[in-house]
Amino acid sequence: MDKANSKIFLIDDDEEIRSGVSLLLKSHGYNIESFKSVDELLEYADYSGTGCILLDVFLGEESGLELQSKIEINFETLPIIFITGQGNIPMSVEAMKKGALNFLQKPIDETELLKAIEEALIRSDERIKKQNEIEKFKSLVNSLTAREYEIFRYVITGMLNKQIAAELGIAEHTVKNHRLSITQKLGVKSVPEMIYIAEKLSIKTSRNNNSK
Predict the structure, then answer these.
(1) 63 DSSP β-pair partners
(2) Which of 137, 34, 124 has its CA nearest to residue 76?
(3) Is the pTM of this model over 0.85?
């Protein structure tokens, strides 16, 4: 993982922890930004690159667990690693169920922290690739005309050209022409590839729903 092009966000209300962890991670070549509260993080400019968030469970009167969802909405590509000096098993289970990647106890073990961060950055990169793929597919599907999209949704059910033609009340050669245009616009060569795109975009195959 390219450390230079990734970023770690640390949120902890303990200045000594922020300073110590920041120095440690910088010594290993990581880019790190530290904050004393989640509000400070949320004021930070939007970041959609590879990275992760180190979040203290207890932030004064705030709870990192309660703010977890709020953080994930704003930084959806960044996995969360919880750190705490007062954690317990039920708390760690709750955090993991909500999507946290890891739960580390203070004092933080250097080896465990570095391993958790490495795993988080790999997961973050995977999320970005998935997000980019979905955005690409959305753009391709949006390039289809209304009729092409309608036929596309029939094609992914496995229907033959003559069946689609009969369903829509149009000539079979018209369906063939539309299918050719669809494959060209989507950059695919087979029905399984179309199905893959449809699944990634959660496109329904119901014959009664023709809206994009």
Answers:
(1) 58
(2) 124
(3) no
